[in-house]
Write a structure and sequence with these properties.
The chain contains 13 helices and 20 strands. Helix 1 crosses helix 5 and helix 12 runs parallel beside helix 13. The longest helix has 24 residues. Helix 1 links the parallel strand 1 and strand 2. The protein has 446 residues and is an alpha/beta fold. The strands form six sheets. The chain has a five-stranded parallel sheet with strand order 2-1-3-4-5, with helices on both faces. The protein has a five-stranded mixed barrel with strand order 16-17-18-20-19. The protein is globular. It binds iron/sulfur cluster. The site of iron/sulfur cluster has 10 residues, from helix 6.
């Protein structure tokens, strides 16, 4: 019998190899049991079988391959893990047994569980489970962050994140989509895609093809965004560097599949400083790229962050930064005065900028940007836009957000007192006023 609404999903487990493999098996089994899976001792009653392999000597390899073959013959749904799974990046096992569902290496309990969840989702019982299917979240129910990868392959000279979080590790796209679907089912109307370097998604997995609901899906940002765009909610992208392939996302924005919004941390406008910062995509013609994006999607909102006072930044570099800012006409911008992070290579760069100069430059930068932001918001006065109610204040004062505003970091839209609205409602708003940060409008339909 297969797992249904009231029957717990059943997993068979074959554990081969040394005590280290046994400990890996124990971890996986413990987690499976904690998630409500039943562990069974025969192929026939299992819904999926895990084979933890050994790859130490030829005899162990043979035994592992035989065990996988037997599980495939007797059951058909097989997840492979362990030392043999690591050989040739999994291709050795796939070459011998192409029908296995997934291949992972030793000490990868998380990846094994992901593969089991994909093949056989854990049963959810709302009467006994304390955790809802979408997990516990710190954000309000109507929006949620969706982390698509961890770590970073870049080596920006002011940053120590790669040394703390390691190289880029992208999640499997089917795993991300299952989480996204659970979030939407749990009430999320906006998904905020985050990572350290969103455009690099999938590089580490060599853009491998996975399957979601029987459809092939590449581990690639464009393909992932296209799939997320089918969920019927707002999809907003953060931490996107201006790599050439980001241009491929613009048609998805123009078609209304994902929000016309890009959070692109540019950090500077002087090529010399960008080089010293060792920024990704620094060599690309960023200004041309931004202008091209705007041509493709005129209502695109671009948010960015910058650092002033980086070691070696001269008056000429700063002037170049301000020129860039004026030419780029970004919508939302944050600016930080450079501060040394212990362990960052930038600390060794000569030409530390005095704190007072950093602050002067930051104030000058923000004055230039404020005028730009004000003007860009002013252009939106008179427009009608669909918005999401973010807060209902005392006395029924409504605060909403438009597609151009990410929660917490961008501006909001003040709608005054409107009866009958709740957080998470969609409203149609006519914008009638703007300042440098926020918009003001009235609800025309709810
Ligand atoms: S600042 Fe650079 S190195 Fe640090 S996480 Fe971002 S892209 Fe990676």
């Amino acid at each position: 019998m297969k797992a249904g609404a009231n029957t717990p999903p059943k997993v068979g487990f074959v554990s081969l190899g040394c005590p280290k493999a046994t400990v890996d098996s124990e971890r996986i089994l413990t987690q499976l049991r904690a998630e409500g899976y039943l562990l069974v001792g025969d192929y026939a009653s299992a819904d999926v079988v895990v084979v933890n392999t050994c790859g130490f000597i030829d005899a162990a390899v043979e035994e592992s391959l035989e065990a996988i073959g037997e599980a495939l013959n007797e059951n058909g749904k097989v997840v492979v893990t362990g030392c043999l799974g690591a050989r040739e990046g999994g291709d050795f096992v796939r070459g011998a047994h192409p029908k296995v569902l997934a291949v992972t290496g030793p000490n990868q309990a998380g990846a094994v569980l992901d593969a089991i969840h994909a093949a056989l989702p854990p049963a959810h019982d709302p009467y006994t489970d304390l955790v809802p299917p979408q997990g516990l979240r710190l954000t309000p129910p109507h929006y949620a962050y969706l982390k698509i990868s961890e770590g970073c392959n870049q080596s920006c000279s002011f940053c120590i994140i790669p040394s703390m979080r390691g190289k880029l590790v992208s999640r499997a796209p089917d795993d991300i989509l299952r989480e996204a679907e659970a979030l939407v089912a749990g009430g999320a109307k906006e998904l905020l895609v985050i990572s350290q370097d969103t455009g690099a998604y999938g590089v580490d997995r060599k853009y491998r093809t996975a399957f979601h609901n029987g459809r092939p899906l590449k581990t690639r940002i464009t393909d992932l965004c296209a799939a997320l765009g089918e969920l019927g909610v707002w999809v907003r992208l953060h931490y996107v560097y201006p790599y050439p392939h980001i241009d491929e996302l613009l048609p998805l924005m123009a078609a209304g599949k994902i929000l016309p919004y890009l959070d692109v941390p540019l950090q500077h406008g002087s090529p010399r400083i960008l080089k010293a910062m060792r920024r990704p995509a620094a060599a690309e013609k960023t200004l041309d790229r931004i202008l091209g994006w705007r041509q493709a999607v005129p209502d695109l909102t671009i948010r960015s962050t910058f650092i002033v006072g980086f070691p070696g930044e001269t008056d000429a570099d700063f002037t170049e930064l301000l020129d860039f800012l004026r030419a780029a006409e970004l919508d939302r911008v944050g600016c930080f005065a450079y501060s040394a992070v212990e362990g960052a290579p930038a600390n060794a760069i000569a030409g530390a900028v005095p704190e007072s100069v950093k602050e002067e430059r930051r104030a000058a930068f923000m004055a230039v940007q404020e005028a730009i932001s004000r003007q860009r918001l002013q252009h939106r006065v008179g427009q009608r836009q669909r918005m999401l109610v973010d807060a209902v204040g005392r006395g029924g004062k409504i605060t909403a957000r438009s597609a151009s505003d990410a929660p917490e970091i961008d501006g909001v839209v003040h709608l005054g007192k409107v009866a009958g609205l709740q957080v998470g409602d969609w409203v149609e708003v006519e914008i009638n006023r703007a300042d440098a940060h926020d918009l003001y409008g009235m609800v025309v339909s709810a």
